[in-house]
Design a protein that fits this description.
Elements (H helix, E strand, L loop, with lengths): L1 H82 L5 H36 L1
Helix pairs in contact: 1-2
Length: about 120
């Protein structure tokens, strides 16, 4: 009976040691992950800031091109109307709809570009 209790105590102590070792191993693994996260976080933030700056430049460039195209159309449109006959009612409606459609298309392109660009960046890194 005394021997059985000794064996039982030794087994219990060994089980506690094993459990403690597993807990410590898990804590070390978590600490390693935390250190890795901290080291990567600054690089990620820097890359994110650079990407945001590139997106702003691209958006500004696209907007500038849109303004230039509008100005070009407006300048070209005035010359063409002097040479042509006045448009009929249906032609006038189509001409009125064209700038609105072009503007909507440009706005859509800008939105698509800004939405897709971060996803593309994620796959590049």
């Amino acid at each position: 009976m005394v021997e059985k209790r000794c064996i039982s105590k030794e087994a219990e102590i060994q089980q506690k040691i094993t459990t403690t070792q597993r807990v410590l191993a898990g804590m070390h693994r978590i600490e390693g992950c935390r250190r890795h996260h901290v080291s990567c976080e600054s690089r990620y933030q820097q890359a994110q800031a650079e990407q945001l700056e590139l997106e702003r430049r691209d958006t500004a460039s696209l907007y500038q091109r849109t303004l230039e195209q509008r100005a070009k159309k407006a300048a070209g449109g005035g010359k063409q109307q002097q040479q042509q006959h006045p448009p009929t009612g249906k032609q006038q409606q189509q001409q009125d709809a064209e700038p609105a459609a072009a503007e909507q298309r440009n706005h859509t392109l800008i939105m698509i570009f800004t939405k897709l660009q971060p996803q593309v960046y994620v796959f590049r890194s």
